[in-house]
Amino acid sequence: MPVTFSQAASASMIEGSENFPSGNEHQLRPRHRQRRAQVARACDACRLRRTKCDNGIPCSKCIARGNHCSNSGAPKASTLTEASEEIASLKLKVQQLETELKRQASDSHNLPDPISSPRPPHSAGISTGGDITPSLKRYRDGIQFWPPRSSTETWFGPSSIYFFIQRLSEFLNLKLRQEHSIHSLHPLSASDHKLLDVPEASQLGNTGRSCARPAEDVPAAGGIYLSPIQEDYFLNIYWQTYHTSLFPIVDESQFKNHYQSLLVNGGQDRRPSALVDIIIAMCMQLAISATPTETQGILVEGKDALVAGRWHYWRGQKLLQYELDSPSLATLQCHLLCAVYVCGGSFHNMVNSTVGLAVSTAYSLGLHLDPPSTMPERDREIRRRLWWAVYIMDSKSGMKLGRPFMLQSSYTMPALPSDTLETAASSGSMFAPIGQNVTWLTYNLHMIQLYMKVRTAYTAFYEQDVYLQKDQTLWNEHEAQTSSVEFLNTHSQSFREWVDGVPESLKLKRQNNGQPLSTDFTSILLEPFTPIWLQRQRLLLEHTYHHLSINLYRPFISFSSKPAANSIAEELAIRCASHAVMLTLITHQILTESTLFDGWHEAFYCQWNAVMTLVGFVLLFPHTPLLTNQAKHAINLAIAIFGNFGAKFAIAANAAKIVGGLSAKLEVLAKPNESESNATIISLDSEAISSSPVFIDHVLPSDDLFDAPGLDLFDMAVDIDFWNNAAALWPDLDNLSQF
């Protein structure tokens, strides 16, 4: 019989009454009321509706209604400071999202990167709004100034030695408590306003196309030109120096055949050729710079050895003007060699412009594409070597001047050139194999690989996303420096891999079981009965390794913030100084024991770069155990090095005077001085350095560096690289009347 609801309810009440306490017990036992769950703060929607909120994230009422719940779980800003921090965090997040959107939009349209090299996956693009900008904007750093004998400003970027010297000057000015006059402009002469005037044809001879030139068309009188027998002397220098130790971009056998075809009048004269003229100019510059000034003779025309061969150089330039619209491989060869020549003469803006022509010509010739397999292997290899020579020159110019690279690494590139025995045998040059499948072309291959690794690290360092405030730079922002240090340190392993990959036959041997391509400060060992070209290859491979390492690690010798003791930043600063010391030791030994560096201008400029870096290191780290003493010793050796170079060209003698003066100032600063307790002097002794970085930027000028009083040191130092002007190089300007 079914049970009704009323019956079930009655039964339940009767059954449950057995568990109830009796009346007396109920009165004696206190009743505990269950506490209601408290809600710290109802969500916004429940507060408006005055309904119960369970404080869920999100709450159940908002879920049921499908509303947005204000209970997000994020901490609430309860003070003004917390609110400001939250606003700054949100602005940064918006900034990152905007830059990421712009980067994706740029990638979708296949636009090249603004700096030429491929951006790392975590890197963002340029943002045009807000007060915080990514470090890609760091190319805004650097200096603008008027070089001597120039009527316009020149900009050098943050990696340049010029920017480093200016910051060094300001810091030294502070340490010495000296006031100096404002950076003065050098007076301009009338000839300086006519630097772009084209010399008269009568000065340079008829310079039409060599292919259309009649046999009797030879250079006219009025310039310093060589006879064929003199030219043969300088051309032979090229194959043992630049050809083997710079880049092998000229086929020797084809060039010699071409030269023979230019001889006229029974071999007494030669028709002009741009390629022949620039090679002769380079070798005149090298050979005459290796001889004492009193024996240089008429070929320098009373000028410095660094502009020897200028008549041949400008005749080649005139010929190249006819090839601008229809360039050939020979045109590109000329641009590359011209860049080397003007760099040796310290015309660094001209280097940058000439490298730009080389990059443009290489693209127009399609050298960025790997040659087709139908092309003869000999031609394929020369095209590859030409492309990678452009890559090296673009890397040198960009890193030295601190300017963006012109060659776009984001585009496809050809394969690396081959260095096999078969390739060397068909190259047009006859050099003996070195052994272990190493040929005279192997040096060029490993030099390319070194520049690739350094350029990758350099590009990643200057394009990384370190967000800086509007007026901040890497040099005065500790967090940006810390991030940069860790970022750059990750590339150190790739350099070690490159060192391990260099064949033993290309490494300089060290005395006392020292390690090649290291900074153990051991002397090098020159092997007797070894070809000069091979000795120079070994020397330049290690010399270049130390030079590029100096440039890469120098940002951490910062005069705005000294790195914390035992930090990675301090380690990289010490590593930079160690490479500078090693480069100086090698250069001094080579100049003392051999002639491998006689007249080699790149060795001089690398040494200048190294010694100025060491001066900055000693100023910032006056009491680093062992290394500071080694650095001071290297500075004194550099004075002797410049004295050696200075006996042959004047620029080096000027460098010796500057470094000698700096060395004396370092000795003065090293002595105890009670007046240094003055509050305006910031002590950087190691005892005064705590575990945190020491910021000194607040005592330096915050405006543009050239709006502040300049130190004479900078004026003199700039003269090292800009001592020359085009009036010395341009033949026609000497005869211009003065206004």
Highlighted features:
8 strands, disordered C terminus, 26 helices, 50% helix, single chain, mainly alpha, CD2-Gal4, two-stranded antiparallel ribbon, 739 residues, 2 domains
What would your notes on this structure say?
It is a single chain. The chain is mainly α. The protein has two domains: 43-70, CD2-Gal4, CATH 4.10.240; 194-735, no CATH class. It contains 26 helices and eight strands. It has helices spanning 5-17, 23-28, 44-49, 60-65, 80-108, 161-176, 201-204, 228-240, 242-245, 252-262, 274-289, 310-320, 329-344, 348-364, 377-401, 421-425, 442-463, 478-489, 492-501, 532-553, 568-593, 601-620, 627-646, 650-670, 712-722, 726-729; strands spanning 143-145, 154-156, 263-264, 269-270, 509-510, 524-525, 561-562, 694-695. Strand 1 and strand 2 form a beta hairpin. Helix 6 runs antiparallel to helix 25, helix 15 packs across helix 17 (442-463) and helix 22 packs antiparallel against helix 23 (627-646). It is globular and about 110 Å long.
SSE layout and pairings?
Elements (H helix, E strand, L loop, with lengths): L4 H13 L5 H6 L15 H6 L10 H6 L14 H29 L34 E3 L8 E3 L4 H16 L24 H4 L23 H13 L1 H4 L6 H11 E2 L4 E2 L3 H16 L20 H11 L8 H16 L3 H17 L12 H25 L19 H5 L16 H22 L14 H12 L2 H10 L7 E2 L13 E2 L6 H22 L7 E2 L5 H26 L7 H20 L6 H20 L3 H21 L23 E2 L16 H11 L3 H4 L10
Antiparallel strand pairs: 1-2, 3-4, 5-6, 7-8
Question: Care to give the gist of this entry?
Answer:
By secondary structure, the protein is mainly alpha-helical. The chain has 26 helices and 8 strands. It folds into 2 domains: about 30 residues, CD2-Gal4 (Irregular); about 550 residues, no CATH class.
